[in-house]
Amino acid sequence: MDDIDKVAHYLKNSSDVVDRSDFKIPHTSWTECIRYVLDLSSTADVKEEVKSFKSAAKWLPDKGAARINQLSLRKLTSSEIIKKADDQIRTGNIQEALLYYDYAVMVLKKAGNSRQIGKLLLIIGDAYCKMGNFSLALSAYEGAELYFSKDNNENDKAELAYSRGVCFQLWGKHKEGYDYLLMAYELFSNVRNLDKAHKTLSRMSLSLSFLEPEDAIKACNEALEFFEQQKAVFTDKLLKKS
Hints:
Blueprint: H1 3-13, H2 30-37, H3 46-56, H4 64-69, H5 78-90, H6 94-111, H7 114-131, H8 134-148, H9 154-170, H10 174-190, H11 194-205, H12 213-241
Helix pairs in contact: 5-6, 6-7, 7-8, 7-9, 8-9, 9-10, 10-11, 11-12
């Protein structure tokens, strides 16, 4: 193995960066080896840098060279990292995108941007959901809820409730899914985001046949009320036009 692979192997198998090693590159301490391969400054805290490195690279645990390549992210802004992640999502590389999003969260935590962290954790949860990793998705949503609670933005809470509802729905847990989708519908309605409210009602309809009759009836009534309100709006527009 070359130096990069040796460091990757060490990081994978050692719980302590400085005090323990399975093997060493001859005549080089692990601290200095890691400092060199990770391109750290002479004043950098090796333990802290490796901790960050392991967090950013956790999705590629067996590929030393690929892990090291992710260090280029350290020179990018959070916006540039997120753009890279978004590009990966557009091309269908969800797992690669997760690595970038995860690193962006770490960068934003240092900056203390709570709402942006919450939004990224929501995106991470949605990515897990697309992969079918529903428990990991829900864990990411819990993190998003924690950060959204600091900002108290109703639309963010609605988006989170919608994502949780879809996650439970795809998991086959339709009652839980319905409860969160109903919450999302009410929140979207409160902030007058009618497009999202309509989208949520459409999503709720997918669970109707799996619900208890009283819940299914309630969902239908919510939909009827929404469309009656919309009908009134368009009727008013028609009357003004004539």
